[in-house]
Amino acid sequence: MRLFVAAELPDPIKEQLVPLCAGLPGARWVTADQMHVTLRFFGDLGGTLAEDVAEGLSAIRSPGFSLALAGIGHFGTGRRVRVLWAGVEQEPALDILQGKVELAARQAGLNLAGRRFHPHVTLARFRGGSPNLSGYLAYHEPFRTEPFPVQEFALISSHLSAEGVIYRPEVRFSLEYAASTAKT
Predict the structure, then answer these.
(1) Is residue 184, in this structure, part of any structural domain at all?
(2) pLDDT (tens digit, 9 = 90+) per residue, 134-150?
């Protein structure tokens, strides 16, 4: 089963992202139900390894926090742009949570390649040639959402279907969230 850990987005934030998902030929746009902030992608995990990872994630204790999305960017350069994304404003609590997810996965037995964490929400993927992004970026910048609370994270499975990729939360894990510290 293909698994990853993510912070899911509230519907009002997804509604702000959906209009960004148009206007570039050759883009494979994500749907609103596919939008999230990935904390760690694991890939195919079988048998007890998936259960061990879920158990490790359940032991994470971390405070809730607020996030805001800001900016639009891409991975890749020139004719090799692979992904178009909406950025996540820096939030130390998100970095701490991601580090705890990473540690829990390693303790469960996963041998993870080191990757720099770059929080984002994928908007589109590209194959082959890349479109000219300058007009798109100029039209949609500056992009920013209001802060929204993050009160949980999820272990999510990814399934291929005739309609495309379907994400399904397998387990949700609550964060310790104090309403008095919420930014709204």
Answers:
(1) no
(2) 888 888 888 999 999 99
Q: Identify whether the C-beta of residue 126 lies closer than 8 Å to the C-beta of residue 27.
A: yes
Q: Say whether 131 sits in a helix, a strand or coil.
A: coil
User: Which residues are paired to 67 by β-bridges?
Assistant: 148
Q: Where are the alpha helices (DSSP H) in 31-87?
A: 47-58
CA neighbours within 13 Å on the CB side: how many for 90? 1
| Residue from 61, 170, 36, 45 nearest 105 by CA | 45
Give the total number of structural domains in the chain.
Answer: 1
Would residue 127 count as lying in a domain?
A: yes
**pLDDT tens digit string along 75-91?**
887 667 789 999 999 99
Q: Which two tokens stand for residue 103?
A: 């540690």
Nearest-angstrom CA–CA distance, 147 and 67: 5
Q: What span, in angstroms and rounded, lies between the C-alpha atoms of 98 and 95?
A: 5
Q: Is 157 helix (H, G, I), strand (E, B) or coil?
A: strand
